[in-house]
C-alpha cells in the first residue's frame, strides 16, 4: 500500500511537471503567435527574446528573429527605393523643364517677332537646336539609367583594342578641346592594349568622362588621358587640373540620388545620372571606377577592365 501511494505521489509530481512544461510551451507559443501577427501587420520591431529549456521553441524563436530582421531590411530598402523614386522624378521634372522652357520661349520669339533680321533668326534657330540636343541627351540618360537599374542590359563583352578605341573617341572631341583652347595630354602605350569590354559601353564611359572633364575642369587649362597595364588589369585615367571636387562630395559623386538642388549648385565635377551610368557600365564589364581630387592640382577618374592575353602588339 505504501508503495502504491509513493508511486501515485511520484506520478502526480511528474504529471505536474509535464503539465507545467505544457503550460509554459503554450505561453511561449502564444507569444510567438502574437509576434507573427505583429510582423504580418508591419508593426514588429526589435529582438524577440524567449528563455526556455525547449530547444525546438528556442530554435523557432531564433528563426522568428531572423525573419524579423529580414523583413525589417526589406522594409528599409523599400522605403529607400521609394524615396529614390520620388527624388528621381523630381530631378526628371527639373531637368526637363529647363530646356523645354527655353525651347518654348525661343519658339515664341520666332512666332511673334516678324521684324527680326536674318542673323537673329539664325541665332534663335541655333539655340533651339542646341536645347533640343540637350533634351534628347537628358531623355537618353534617364532611359539608359532605368535599363541599367533594372538589369535589362547585358554587356557584349569581347576582346577590344583599348588603345585604338581611345584614340578614336578622343578624336571625336577634338573640336570640344579646341573650343576651350586645350590640347589634351595623351599618355598611351606604343603598342595595342586589349581588354574585355563592350565597345558601345566603352565609348559611352569614355564620352561621359571626357565631357565631364571638359565641362567642369576647363578652368585648369590642362587635360589628360592615360592608359597603362598593371598585372591582369588595363587602367584608364581621365584627368584635369581644374577646380576639382569638394572632399565632402567625393563619396557621393557616383550616387544616382546625389542630384538635388544642393549638388546642382555645387562647384564639382558634376552629378546626377551621367556618372552613375558610367559607374554601372564599368561594373557590368567587370571593372571598378575611382575618383580622386585635389583642386587645381589634379582631379582624376580612373577605372580598370580585365586584360586579355593579346596585349603588346606594336601599333606601327
Automatic annotation (TrEMBL):
<keyword id="KW-0808">Transferase</keyword>
<keyword id="KW-1133">Transmembrane helix</keyword>
<dbReference type="InterPro" id="IPR003594">
    <property type="entry name" value="HATPase_dom"/>
</dbReference>
<feature type="domain" description="Histidine kinase">
    <location>
        <begin position="91"/>
        <end position="309"/>
    </location>
</feature>
<dbReference type="Pfam" id="PF02518">
    <property type="entry name" value="HATPase_c"/>
</dbReference>
<dbReference type="InterPro" id="IPR004358">
    <property type="entry name" value="Sig_transdc_His_kin-like_C"/>
</dbReference>
<keyword id="KW-0067">ATP-binding</keyword>
<dbReference type="InterPro" id="IPR036097">
    <property type="entry name" value="HisK_dim/P_sf"/>
</dbReference>
<dbReference type="InterPro" id="IPR003661">
    <property type="entry name" value="HisK_dim/P_dom"/>
</dbReference>
<dbReference type="Pfam" id="PF00512">
    <property type="entry name" value="HisKA"/>
</dbReference>
<dbReference type="GO" id="GO:0000155">
    <property type="term" value="F:phosphorelay sensor kinase activity"/>
</dbReference>
<keyword id="KW-0597">Phosphoprotein</keyword>
<protein>
    <recommendedName>
        <fullName>histidine kinase</fullName>
        <ecNumber>2.7.13.3</ecNumber>
    </recommendedName>
</protein>
<keyword id="KW-0472">Membrane</keyword>
<dbReference type="GO" id="GO:0005886">
    <property type="term" value="C:plasma membrane"/>
</dbReference>
<keyword id="KW-0902">Two-component regulatory system</keyword>
<dbReference type="GO" id="GO:0005524">
    <property type="term" value="F:ATP binding"/>
</dbReference>
<dbReference type="InterPro" id="IPR050398">
    <property type="entry name" value="HssS/ArlS-like"/>
</dbReference>
<keyword id="KW-0812">Transmembrane</keyword>
<keyword id="KW-0547">Nucleotide-binding</keyword>
<dbReference type="InterPro" id="IPR005467">
    <property type="entry name" value="His_kinase_dom"/>
</dbReference>
<dbReference type="InterPro" id="IPR036890">
    <property type="entry name" value="HATPase_C_sf"/>
</dbReference>
<keyword id="KW-0418">Kinase</keyword>
Amino acid at each position: 500500500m505504501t508503495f502504491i501511494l509513493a508511486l501515485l505521489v511520484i506520478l502526480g509530481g511528474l504529471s505536474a511537471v509535464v503539465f507545467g512544461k505544457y503550460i509554459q510551451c503554450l505561453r511561449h507559443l502564444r507569444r510567438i503567435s502574437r509576434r507573427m501577427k505583429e510582423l504580418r501587420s508591419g508593426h514588429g520591431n526589435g529582438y524577440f527574446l524567449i528563455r526556455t529549456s525547449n530547444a525546438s521553441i528556442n530554435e523557432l524563436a531564433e528563426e522568428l528573429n531572423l525573419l524579423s530582421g529580414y523583413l525589417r531590411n526589406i522594409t528599409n530598402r523599400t522605403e529607400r527605393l521609394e524615396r529614390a523614386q520620388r527624388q528621381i522624378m523630381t530631378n526628371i521634372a527639373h531637368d526637363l523643364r529647363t530646356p523645354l522652357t527655353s525651347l518654348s520661349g525661343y519658339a515664341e520669339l520666332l512666332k511673334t517677332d516678324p521684324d527680326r533680321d536674318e542673323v537673329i533668326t539664325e541665332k534663335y534657330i541655333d539655340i533651339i537646336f542646341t536645347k533640343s540636343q540637350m533634351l534628347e541627351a537628358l531623355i537618353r540618360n534617364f532611359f539608359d539609367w532605368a535599363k541599367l537599374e533594372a538589369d535589362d542590359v547585358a554587356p557584349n563583352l569581347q576582346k577590344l583594342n583599348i588603345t585604338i578605341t581611345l584614340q578614336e573617341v578622343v578624336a571625336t572631341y577634338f573640336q570640344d578641346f579646341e573650343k576651350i583652347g586645350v590640347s589634351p595630354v595623351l599618355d598611351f602605350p606604343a603598342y595595342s592594349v586589349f581588354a574585355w569590354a563592350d565597345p558601345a559601353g566603352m565609348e559611352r564611359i569614355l564620352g561621359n568622362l571626357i565631357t565631364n572633364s571638359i565641362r567642369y575642369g576647363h578652368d585648369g587649362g590642362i587635360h589628360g588621358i592615360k592608359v597603362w597595364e598593371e598585372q591582369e588589369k588595363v587602367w584608364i585615367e581621365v584627368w584635369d587640373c581644374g577646380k576639382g571636387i569638394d572632399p565632402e562630395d567625393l563619396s557621393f559623386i557616383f550616387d544616382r540620388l546625389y542630384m538635388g538642388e544642393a549638388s546642382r549648385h555645387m562647384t564639382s565635377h558634376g552629378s546626377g545620372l551621367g556618372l552613375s551610368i558610367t559607374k554601372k557600365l564599368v561594373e557590368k564589364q567587370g571593372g571598378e571606377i575611382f575618383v580622386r581630387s585635389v583642386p587645381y592640382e589634379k582631379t582624376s577618374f580612373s577605372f580598370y577592365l580585365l586584360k586579355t592575353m593579346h596585349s603588346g602588339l606594336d601599333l606601327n
